[in-house]
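ok, trying the design again with the full structure, not the truncated one.
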């Protein structure tokens, strides 16, 4: 029997980055956006959990804070999959059986 993890344990990477990386480093969105060379709005949207983390943004965080982009992208993927699994019963697809 596989262990079932509750979807609530999957945290949006933006929210995690904000609380665990950005704020403890004393950065605000405006400062960090300028440092990253991105718009304040794009960074704010990510850090507030309203946009997905892109691979490019993950690399920016890796370069600035030393956190591995691979880990951040796995966090994003796990979060997205948990969101879809929460309503997977609404996806009407039947199994394909191999032809004999």
């Amino acid at each position: 029997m596989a262990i079932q993890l509750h979807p609530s344990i999957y945290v949006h990477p933006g929210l995690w980055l904000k609380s665990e990386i950005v704020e403890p480093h004393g950065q605000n969105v405006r400062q960090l956006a300028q440092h990253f060379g991105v718009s304040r709005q794009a960074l704010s949207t990510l850090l507030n959990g309203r946009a997905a983390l892109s691979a490019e943004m993950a690399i920016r965080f890796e370069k600035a804070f030393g956190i591995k982009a691979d880990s951040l992208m796995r966090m994003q993927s796990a979060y997205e999959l948990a969101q879809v699994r929460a309503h997977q019963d609404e996806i009407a697809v039947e199994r394909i059986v191999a032809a004999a």
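Keeping the full-length input from now on. Helices lie at 13-22, 29-36, 40-47, 55-65, 69-85.
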